[in-house]
Structures are given as C-alpha cells and as structure tokens.
Predict the structure.
Amino acid sequence: MEKKQKNKYEYSAISIKADVAVRFRSYSKQFSKSNSEVLHRMIHFLSWNGLDPFKHSIDKLIKEQEKTLKQIEYLISIIKNIEKLHIKPTHEMVKILFEAYCKSNKTIKKEKAFLPRPIIEEARDNYSRLKNERLEREFLAYIKECNKLLEKIEVTEPTFGKPYLKVNLSQGEYEQLRRQLNKN
C-alpha cells in the first residue's frame, strides 16, 4: 500500500537560533500565513527592491526618501506660488473648453447686451462717489493714528548736549505700528 502525501511540498531543515525562530514564528502568525510563505515573500521583497541586509542598502532607501521629500517640497512651492499669484487654472481650463465648444458650434448667436446710457453713467457716478468716501474714511483714520503717535512724542533736554525727541511706545505698540505700515 502506498501512503498518501499530506503535503505536496518538500521540506528542508535550516539551522536557526532558537530565539530567532521564536521571533520569526510570532511574526509570521501576524499574517496568518505559513512560515515558508512569509519567508518567501520577505526574500522576494528584498530582491525586488535591491536591498541587501548586510550592505549599505539603507543608504539607498534614505536617498530615495530624500528625493521624494524634495519632490514634495517642489510641489508645495509650486502651490504656494499659485496662491501668491492668484493664478486660477480652472478658470483658464473652462475658458479653453468654451472656446473649443464655440469653434465646434458655429451656429451660436452672439447677442450684444448694452445697458442704457443713463444706467452706465449712474453706476460710474456711484462708483466714484463710494471710492471717494472710502478714501476719506481711510484718510481720517490715518490722521487719527498720526495724532496718537504725535501725542506719545516728548522733548527731552539733557544737561549736556542738544535736546532730542523721545517716543514713548511699548514694544507691542511699536511692532503693531511697524506691521501696519508694512502692510500698506
């Protein structure tokens, strides 16, 4: 009588330290695979990525990671540049799509919409009036700030030398004034 084969694989014995074997078995149980399957996949991973545990393959990984970080930083700088310059690529894409649609559809009627003359003139007058009022408010606020600053200036007369002007501002007030002037 022939014995039935339980497994279709052939096994080979490998000498491994006991603590390493215990550690490897607990590691392979995390994936609920056989020890052979986990070891096979580990070897495949190492060879596929060109990693050698006894050489400087770690340097290769670090170089790849640095390269990836540089690419990410470059993309971030592009996005920041887009935000600063207020470039709106979606607007440009939609514009190109509409132009292509108009070229393919030549039967589109072009209507010229004109507002009556009095409405346009009234809108211009309102705009210039509102702009003038805004400028006056800003100028009055600027005058108030200048007067506050002038109130904090004192004339100091030393016993020796010429008199000089002293500005009594706290560090916070000075920083706030500097930021406000740099903003404008």
